Amino acid sequence: MRIIGLLGGTFNPIHLGHLRMAQALADALQLDEVRFIPSATPPHKVAPEVSAIQRAEMVRIAISDNPLFKLDMRELERTGASYTIDTLISLRKELGASVALCLIMGSDAFIQLNTWARWQELLNYCHIILVQRPNTIKQSKLADELAALLEQNYTESIADLSQKPAGYVHMQAISALDISSTVIRANLKTTHSIRYLVTNDVLNYINLNSLYG
Ligand code: ATP
Ligand code: MG
């Protein structure tokens, strides 16, 4: 079965932490493809100061040299809040039932999963792959319903993920880089450089378009 990773995010801007994480998962899980899916209107964030089109453009630039990485624009083609469940339903329609979909999320995203629209339905459409992000508060207690979701659907086995198209939760150890878009935006408001946190082409795009000033 083909196995595709899905990495949703605001990508405001995309940074080396995202790219390294996607590559590490592609290697560990033997993914055939990783789709980067920029959120047009993130339901849980204040509206980003940089447009969805520009955030997506930075993703396109950042991944263009990697044949495994694809940009998926479907959330920009819808109106209203960008709900992951709608994206998954749309992907399933397009790709059919015989491909395994792995929704990738950092631990910071997972601890809030029970606030997502129709979150209980997500595993009907995909597996969930968790990666530990540096400096997320480890002790932060998982809500009971998320602990139950983990316990009932957890697999340690990577082979399981390509045995069925959806339904497992898997935690994958990677050496995640301690980079966040929040810190990058903060650096850009000062005179601090963001070199080596984003790709050179993304850095040039930000400068050329005077983003995050
Ligand atoms: P912000 O600080 O604006 O929230 P971010 O750096 O967290 O930005 P997002 O676009 O919110 O980036 O992240 C998209 C996805 O990538 C989330 O699931 C997040 O947990 C994950 N992620 C972001 N940065 C890293 C990183 N350095 N290592 C591993 N996962 C990451
Ligand atoms: Mg984030």
Helix content: 25-40%
In terms of quaternary structure, what is this?
A: single chain
- Give the name of the CATH superfamily: HUPs
Mind describing the biggest β-sheet?
6 strands, parallel
Q: Which topology does CATH recognise? A: Rossmann fold
Treating each run of at least 4 consecutive H or I residues as one helix, how many helices? 8
Mean pLDDT: 95
Count of all domains: 1
Folded structure, characterized:
The structure is a single chain. This protein is α/β, with parallel strands linked by helices and about 210 residues long. The protein has a single domain (about 1-175), classed as HUPs (Rossmann fold), CATH 3.40.50.620. About 35% of the residues lie in helices and about 15% in strands. It has eight helices and six strands; from the N terminus they run E-H-E-H-E-H-E-H-E-H-H-E-H-H. It has helices spanning about 15-30, 50-65, 85-95, 105-110, 145-155, 160, 180-190, 200-210, and strands at about 1-10, 35-40, 70, 100-105, 125-130, 170. A six-stranded parallel beta sheet has the order 3-2-1-4-5-6. The longest helix is centred in the N-terminal third of the chain and has 14 residues, at about 15-30. The mean pLDDT is about 95. Bound molecules: adenosine-5'-triphosphate and magnesium ion. Adenosine-5'-triphosphate (ATP) binds near residues 10, 105, 131 and 176.
Compact description:
The protein has 213 residues and is α/β, with parallel strands linked by helices. It contains eight helices and six strands, in the order βαβαβαβαβααβαα.
